[in-house]
Batch of 2 targets.
Target 1
Amino acid sequence: MIRTVGLTRHFTRNKQTIEAVRGLDLEIAPGELVAFLGPNGAGKSTTLRMLTTLIAPTAGTAEVAGYDVTRDRAAVRRSIGYVGQGNAAGHQYRGRDELMSQARAHGLSRRDARARTEELLEAFDLTEHADRPVSRLSGGQRRRLDVAIGLVQEPAILFLDEPSTGLDPQNRVNLQEQVRRLNAELGTTIVITTHYLEEADALAGRVIVIDHGRMIADDTAGALKSALGDLVSMELATTEHAQAAAIRADRIPGAQVTVAGTSVEVRAPFGRSAAPALVADLAAAGTPVTGLEVVGPTLDDVFLNLTGRSLRESDHTAEQTDQHEGEAA
Ligand SMILES: Nc1ncnc2c1ncn2[C@@H]1O[C@H](COP(=O)(O)OP(=O)(O)OP(=O)(O)O)[C@@H](O)[C@H]1O
């Protein structure tokens, strides 16, 4: 459904070359729901803009729905829906009219268009704002309308560029439900970009992690996390006990052990199931554990492990936008 080979895009700014996307090889089958996860500036939007024919690749090739994004732009566009980061809705129109005219433009009868419009208004919590001109909606409401417009025509392939940025948690959940339904009921192939870890985790069967224009991981969220393993954090009474605990923990298959004072951290593929025996052994050896926490890995741990940086550092911008929506709504 989507295939790229060596897909590359450079930009030139102030005589400097920015390698936004660097040699992306990608294969997405019909009916997949895929999340591109990466920090701001990773190259997610640029990739989507090439796949939707909005910008041309500098090198490499991409096929979408069997059509080449450079040679068959019109055919690609007919096969896809795209919700970009900007606002799609015309400002002087009412939200309900925007949805109606989109639905009619895509061939729905007046009756079906009205039903679809009301369904989407309700799904995105827009019913009571539907008769206001778009220019008078808050940022979050406008964002929801944009996404609703992208969902009107139920295309074979849908690209959503950070659709939930600026939405409050409730509307983020509504959006995710709509996306999931579209994928499950209509078999729509969906590519969504996000820097929300929870969203990639909750929504997508497959997560493609992008950093500095390259794909650095491609698997299900579950597989990415289980490859990393659980984190077992232990507190011991003395630094000597901690050293003894570290030696014992090191015997757990695949364990990575770090010691800091009286704290010992063990990252291991089956850390959760290994922890009880570890604690029992340490107690029997006279070096008992005084505090214990076992946490499963998050996608942020996966990103941290791959890049040495946390994805959450780039997340606060989005959280601030959420507060803005609350104020404006
Ligand atoms: N039109 C452009 N001109 C110059 N540089 C650009 C342009 N578009 C993107 N870039 C640069 O390309 C890199 C990748 O940007 P891109 O928008 O694809 O990242 P992203 O992962 O989508 O991040 P975000 O979440 O902020 O949209 C960044 O360094 C960005 O500044």
Note: The domain at 2-224 is CATH 3.40.50.300 (Rossmann fold).
Target 2
Amino acid sequence: MVNKEEIQNQIIQAVETVRRTNPLAGSITNTVTMNFVANAQLAVGGSAAMVYLPDEGEFLAKAGGATYINMGTLLPVYEETLPHTAKVLYDTGKPWILDPVAIGIGTLRTQLLRQFKDYKPSVVRGNASEIIALAGLWGLDGGTDVSNVRGVDSTDSVNAAKAAAVALAKWTGGAVAVSGETDLITDGNLIVFSQGGSHFMEKITGFGCSLGGVAAVYAAAASPFIAALTSTAVYNLAGNRAENKADAPGSFQVQFLDELYKATAEDIADNPLEIEEV
Ligand SMILES: Nc1ncnc2c1ncn2[C@@H]1O[C@H](COP(=O)(O)OP(=O)(O)OP(=O)(O)O)[C@@H](O)[C@H]1O
Ligand SMILES: Cc1ncsc1CCO
Ligand SMILES: [Mg+2]
């Protein structure tokens, strides 16, 4: 039997531990949304640091409680930085979050994402099309050979990524979070649907990226599954609240960061979630 109350207690623990301990979660992430990722990490109580170079990725992997890797805007140096950092994370057993942004574009991205299969990210976070394409690239159930990602955007529904998400979580032994109007989080045994958020989140770039960065902050203090659930829940809660205070995307983003900062552990745990067994 699934104990929802136990999951909610663990969410509360994760939020409180992060606010008390200010864990470092380093990132190698895209240049479009880097600032938003760092600010969201700080708003929930974490500490942020962004780097590009191989030895600096290794340094943060070892120094931080968890690491965020986002493939958004690849640079030549990432051919060395990303596999090097991911291997250090895997070898040291440190949690790491992979956001396979724009999977399908270019050969370096494909090559790097293929390599990550063996370094088993603790949380894979992406929109539905990215999750389906990654399962396809790794030869897992629910995946497709051809990416339906349109640039960085999804063309698939969250539900269409269910089998891929479960297969990825079973492969990594961690968790997978699929974002969309309703979010889906799985550890391969349970599937949780998290409600909330706002349509404005599609009108500002980086809500997905920053969600991944926040998941890394929580992964420094909780299991991958609870980290994925907690980050998704606080995003849905803060998105709802910000929508009530803003009437356009720019002011929404400002209100959202404030609500991320203000959300209590209990309110985050109480954000609507539905649980089913795989
Ligand atoms: N229509 C919507 N209604 C409610 N919440 C939404 C909606 N669309 C996205 N969200 C929320 O926005 C956040 C980011 O999800 P999204 O699927 O847009 O990520 P993404 O496509 O990877 O974004 P990006 O690549 O721009 O960072 C999640 O918390 C998700 O719940
Ligand atoms: C728009 C964009 N392009 C590369 S990364 C990024 C941020 C959203 O994923
Ligand atoms: Mg994205």
Note: The mean pLDDT is 97.
